[in-house]
Design brief:
By secondary structure, this protein is α/β, with parallel strands linked by helices. The chain contains nine helices and six strands. The model has no long low-confidence stretch (mean pLDDT 92).
C-alpha cells in the first residue's frame, strides 16, 4: 500500500491584538497561493519581544470571529494553553510531534526575515519547517539578514516546498496591506482596515479604552 501524500500545513503566528484586515487578507492569500491543505492562525500567549497584550481569551475570540466565514482557516490554541513565553521553535517542535508525516510551513513577514538570525534557535526552526515570507511595506529582501538567508535557503517555487520536508524560505508576492493594530487600538484606523465582527466585539467589551 502506497504511503499517503504528506499534507502541506501552514501556521501563521502573531499577537492578533486585534486581528485586522491585513492579517485576514494575508492568511487567505497564503492559503490559496501556496495551495496549503490547511492554515492555522496561532495567537501568541506571552510574546517574548513585546509588552503584555490583551487577554488570551479576547484575542482568541476575535480571531474566531474574523475567520468564521472562511472554512479554509482555523484557530489553533496551542500557544494560548501555555503559561510560558511563546518561542516559535518550541511551538514547531510540538506541531511536528503532532503531524510527523506532514510538511510544516510557518508564515512570517519580511520584517521578521530581516532579523531572523536573532530569533531563538533559528537554525532549529528551519530544521522543522519551511518559511513563507509575506511582503511588508517598508521592508525588502535586500535588508538585514534576508540576503544571506535567501542565498542559503531560498526556494524558487511552491512546487519545491513539497519536494523537501523543511529548510526552504519562499518569498511570496502578496499585495502589501499597510494596516496597524496600534492604530486600531488607539481608535485611529480607517473602517476599511478593520473587520466588522471584530470591531463590534471590541466595542461590546470595551477593549483598548484608555
Amino acid at each position: 500500500m502506497a504511503a499517503a501524500t504528506p499534507l502541506l500545513r501552514g501556521f501563521y503566528g502573531g499577537t492578533f491584538d486585534p486581528i485586522h484586515q491585513g492579517h485576514l487578507l494575508s492568511a487567505l492569500y497564503v492559503q490559496q497561493a501556496c495551495q496549503l491543505d490547511s492554515l492555522d492562525l496561532l495567537p501568541c500567549h506571552l510574546p517574548p519581544h513585546r509588552d503584555s497584550p490583551s487577554s488570551s481569551a479576547h484575542r482568541a475570540e476575535m480571531v474566531r470571529l474574523a475567520i468564521a466565514p472562511y472554512p479554509q482557516l482555523q484557530l489553533n490554541l496551542l500557544e494560548l494553553k501555555r503559561d510560558t513565553p511563546s518561542y516559535t521553535v518550541d511551538t514547531l517542535t510540538e506541531l511536528k510531534q503532532q503531524y510527523p508525516a506532514d510538511i510544516l510551513c510557518f508564515v512570517i513577514g519580511m520584517d521578521s526575515l530581516c532579523y531572523f538570525t536573532r530569533w531563538h534557535r533559528w537554525p532549529d526552526i528551519l530544521a522543522l519547517c519551511h518559511l513563507l515570507v509575506l511582503q511588508r511595506p517598508g521592508y525588502s529582501a535586500a535588508s538585514g539578514d534576508a540576503p544571506g538567508l535567501l542565498q542559503q535557503f531560498g526556494c524558487p517555487s511552491f512546487t519545491a516546498l513539497r519536494e523537501a520536508k523543511h529548510g526552504h524560505i519562499l518569498l511570496l508576492q502578496n499585495p502589501p496591506v499597510d494596516v496597524s493594530a496600534t492604530a486600531i487600538r488607539s481608535g485611529e484606523a480607517a473602517p476599511a482596515q478593520q473587520i466588522p465582527a471584530v470591531q463590534a466585539y471590541i466595542q461590546r467589551h470595551g477593549l483598548y479604552r484608555r
